[in-house]
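[job 0412] stage=complex_fold ligand=magnesium ion status=START
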Amino acid sequence: MSAPTNVVLLGSTGSVGTQAIEVIRDHPDDYRVVALAAGRNGEALAAQAAVLGVPEDRARLAGDQPDVLADLAALPEADVVLNAVVGFAGLPATLAALTHGKRLALANKESLIAGGPVVAKARAAGGGEIVPVDSEHSAIYQALRSGQPGEVAKIVLTASGGPFRGKRRAELAAVTVADALKHPTWSMGPKITVDSSTLINKGLEVIEAHELFGVDFDRIQVVVHPQSVVHGMVEFTDGATIAQLSMPDMRLPIGLALGAPQRLDQAFGAIDWTTLRSLTFELPDLEAFPGLELAYAAGRAGGGAPAVLSGANEVAVEAFLAGRIPWLGIAETVDEVLQAGTGNVEDVSDVLETDRVARLRARTSIDNRAAA
Ligand code: MG
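[job 0412] stage=complex_fold status=DONE, emitting structure tokens
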């Protein structure tokens, strides 16, 4: 029997991090956690380290020292780096893992979106590979095995539609933070749950799919599928559509990202066909959820636009969660910041600067909105 795969787990106390630990603990012969990092929750981190037998100096809080994430991602003994950090803070770890030739199990979509061209360079130079943890992209990754790259006609990402599916724009003016945090099918952290309610999460996933699979934006479609059972589909040139189905359970894509192409020997989210009745599909309402089109536009514009979209959105979501702007203000803020200009990104310093300016502009826009 071969030695277990060494996993570095970044963002260990969040939703994906804790589920990854469940998967790893169920497969001790296959996987071993060699390092952990969390943002600020030192108590939870220490408890995880004790359970997993991770030494103290390898269980680190990254809150005020962002270098910690990149240092752990570059550890010589690491085989797989699972990046489940929330937001743009995940970028240094993504770059370090790829530069050092690791497998990057990527749950932090923001780093790939904001740093697209820079991440692609790091991947090419270091020989690392990215395996998506995001459920939709895991589905696409699986479906792509059914044909050759030149045979892909279209990628279809499904969206649950979030808690406000079916509501018209006028009805969305007064929704609260609590309303936005009630996701119908997935239990996730607050940032991504709000992003799901605005469909900006799906927009970010469109850009993520473009970066991961090299398919242009005209061939990536979003379909609302409220049951969240079909996670993603690939249509091939002969008209065949291959989909991946399972009940919503992140442990399935986490397990696949750790070991792909090998599958886990344990089922997560297997479908019970005696109770599953219907799967429905509809088109997204772009008037009520303008965030999706903003993301397509930013993706097509390229350069610094995806970084601006992602950075401005992070600031706007924080302001919404803090009760400073209404829900409709999230997409309005992002739109305003995108219109202020996006520039280009050639290297990491450009990405950092683009993100910094976008956040500054978003804060100004939010302050002006609050003062008005
Ligand atoms: Mg997703």
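The chain has a mean pLDDT of 95.
[job 0412] exit 0
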